[in-house]
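This part of the workshop introduces the protein records we will be handling. Getting from the letters to the tokens is the skill we practise here. An example says more than a description, so a record of this kind follows:
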Amino acid sequence: MVTDVNTPEPNNKPENTLVVIAIGGNSLIKDREHMSVLDQYRAAGETSRNIAPIVNQGYRVVVTHGNGPQVGFILLRSELAKDALHQVPLANCVADTQGAIGLQIAQSLQNEFLLRGLDKQVVAIVTQVVVDESDPSFANPSKPIGPFMTEAEARQHEQEDGWSIGEDAGRGWRRLVPSPEPLEIIELATIRTLLDNNTLVVAAGGGGIPVIYKPDGTLRPRPAVIDKDASSCLLASDLGASIFVISTDVDKVALNFGTPEQIDLDHLNIAQCRQYLDEGHFAPGSMRPKIESAIRFLENGGKEVIITQPHHLEGALHGIYGTHIVP
């Protein structure tokens, strides 16, 4: 493996700098042998131990999180119980996982702060995110979710439940849902108020619950999945955060990922990000949405994006680890 030899210089950020940290839903599930709720609590505890030192240094923090595996669990339970109970709407799946994962993260952080003697409150907010019902994704659902099915089972759901269905990489049939662009965080003002009152906020879990405005101004949910990094970017931009951290399962962004020619990158700017996107270095559904969200955050006035693993968070904020992306 080839590594970028440019070593980042440590940098000191001022106190009260606002940092939005987006952690993946897979961060709570280490592997197929550790998928239980207890396993997820333990993983949340590890993540909290990585975030607590940042708070101790004076950073203000908002945590967002993914929920892909957890929504899959709920959908599978719903499918298995469909002859006994009503199926769970997708918006409710997102809300349920926001509450459950939010509890795991908030409680783990609160416990960690107590052990460290930090006077800091933590609140998890069930978050709604406005989308446009005319978003092109609603006419062409392409995001696979939930359990794999036989074609016969998928066709039955298509006929009886109105699902869009498709084959997923030759592994079986799955439900396909829209993945629209996030436009507005409904609870933004509440999140600001909590931050201003010395509270760490967990919000926008799973990209948020997709909702639309009706003509009379009321809200209603839509069956869709919003990309977690896109919603986290929107929240970070709207809050005026200086730093957007995307916590993932690699140390750094890389070119030629997974090949003998892999090059790990310490530093990137927007122009380089666009170049590498055009060259096809970043896979859809993996690094590509992270890089696209990084570009958007920086173009909206953000100062820095950091992409790295959870256990490198503290060092990454001091320029020691991770990939640092600037305008």
Confidence is low (pLDDT under 50) at residues 1-11.
